[in-house]
Design goal:
By secondary structure, this protein is α/β, with parallel strands linked by helices. The protein has 2 domains: 9-47 and 311-408, Aspartate Aminotransferase, domain 1 (Alpha-Beta Complex), CATH 3.90.1150.10; 53-308, Aspartate Aminotransferase, domain 2 (3-Layer(aba) Sandwich), CATH 3.40.640. The chain is built from 13 helices and 15 strands. α3 runs antiparallel to α10 and α5 (108-114) packs across α6 (133-141). The longest helix has 27 residues, at 308-334. The chain is globular. The chain starts with 6 loop residues before the first helix and ends with a helix. The structure holds pyridoxal-5'-phosphate. Residues 42, 107-109, 132, 183, 187, 215, 217, 246, 248-249, 254, 259 line the site of pyridoxal-5'-phosphate (PLP).
Length: 409
């Protein structure tokens, strides 16, 4: 008799985006002429820039000839890409990394979801609330939690509320925790962490022998020069942190797929007898066993992001999205809404008007302005009373959406 992994039965239905979809479809059925603008999903809309497209096309041509064909590559990724990453993303910020500390993958969703596999079942996991759903759900699947309560919070996870009161940045928890998920710039709140804040977390992790899983998927959107792009800009962070980066939002790779994870050699965790164990070889073993490498074409494309033209062209696209963010911020502020984020992140996190739950506001915006956003409650209970808008839409759509909101809500 085949038994299932019962942890999967604890998962709450993948409720957020299907429910948004259901409400939008119902609205469209009743209002077939309405032109709906989506500022809901965190996906890019601008085409890939020419430097990247040309590099990919050359890589595709190589695949067309036996002499230049690339079959399986190294599971950890090609050195040409890893070298470009280390030089441009790390050495430029005073962080030295060895080639063996960077693991190329096909996405940070997979990496942030898979990383928990190399850690013990009995770790206490601390997660910000609201958060990217992968952190919670991957730990539920692994059996590291109990069941969900009526608020949707799982037993044994330590939730760290992020609200306007703490500027959407939690303090290290008072109890002992072992694995800590942090994401800055944050999805969904758009909050960023200063060096002082990250140093506090690194300190906490060092004294509690915990590990920080640092998701930096949005580092390229940081505009403030004082905000760190990597957690390794903090002294001794290599001893306690794994960092996740992705080309998805940075360079429009959501459909191409390329990301990477940094696991420093200095990073240690503990066996049950208290012996310190290096984490890097464990992730290497896991990666080589269960992953067969990111496509050559994707890795060539990612390398082109670091060329002179590649940098210029991707920066222009990021600037376009950040202009959208500024438009949304200013328009909503003018209407009297309290809006957070959108300065160092492509997400705007707004307080819903008094008396509106985040789903009430979703329905109102859809009906009156035909604009779709994401109810904050979908990212965790502390997201209730907030609403997420993304800056990834086309500029004309953003402007029109703001005009409609000004007219109708
Ligand atoms: C979009 C996103 C990622 C990137 O996911 P990919 O699988 O690399 O496309 C990672 N973390 C967060 C918080 C994100 O929003």
């Amino acid at each position: 008799m085949a038994k299932i992994n019962e942890n999967f039965l604890k998962l709450q239905a993948g409720y957020l985006f299907p429910e948004i979809n259901r409400r939008v479809c119902a609205f469209k059925a009743k209002n077939p002429d309405a032109k709906i603008i989506s500022l809901g999903i965190g996906d890019v809309t601008q085409p890939l820039p020419p430097a990247i497209i040309e590099a990919m096309q050359r890589a595709v041509d190589e695949m067309a000839a036996a002499d230049t064909l690339h079959g399986y590559g190294p599971e950890q990724g090609y050195d040409f890409l890893i070298e470009a990453i280390i030089e441009n993303d790390y050495i430029s910020r005073g962080v030295d990394l060895d080639l063996s500390e960077v693991f190329i993958s096909d996405g940070s969703k997979c990496d942030t979801g898979n990383i928990q596999e190399i850690f013990g079942q009995d770790n206490i996991v601390a997660i910000t609330d609201p958060s990217y759903p992968v952190y919670v759900d991957s730990n539920v699947m692994a059996g590291r939690t109990g069941s969900a309560n009526k608020n949707g919070q799982y037993d044994k996870i330590v939730y760290m509320p992020c609200t306007a009161e703490n500027n959407f940045i939690p303090e290290p928890p008072p109890m002992s925790v072992d694995i800590i998920y942090l994401c800055f710039p944050n999805n969904p709140t758009g909050a960023v962490a200063t060096k002082e804040i990250l140093a506090k977390w690194v300190d906490f992790a060092r004294t509690s022998k915990a590990i920080i899983l640092f998701d930096a998927a949005y580092e390229a959107f940081i505009t403030d020069p004082d905000i760190p792009h990597s957690i390794y800009e903090i002294d001794r962070a290599k001893e306690v942190a794994i960092e996740f980066r992705s080309f998805s939002k940075t360079a429009g790779f959501t459909g191409i797929r390329c990301a990477f994870t940094v696991v420093p050699k200095e990073l240690g965790a503990y066996a049950s007898d208290g012996r310190a164990v290096e984490v890097n070889p464990l992730w290497n073993r896991r990666h080589c066993t269960k992953f067969n490498g990111t496509s050559y074409v994707s890795q060539v494309a990612a390398t082109a992001v670091y060329t002179g033209e590649g940098k210029k062209q991707t920066k222009r696209i990021i600037d376009l999205y950040m202009n959208n963010a500024a438009t949304i911020r200013e328009s909503l502020a003018k209407l009297g809404y309290r809006v957070y984020g959108g300065v160092n992140a492509p997400y705007l996190w707004m307080k819903t008007p008094d008396g509106f739950t985040s789903w009430d506001f979703f329905d109102t915006l859809l009906q009156r302005a035909n604009v779709v956003g994401t109810p904050g409650a979908g990212f965790g209970p502390s997201g209730e009373g907030y609403f997420r808008l993304t800056a990834f839409a086309r500029p004309t759509d953003v402007k029109e959406a703001m005009q409609r909101i000004a007219r109708s809500v």
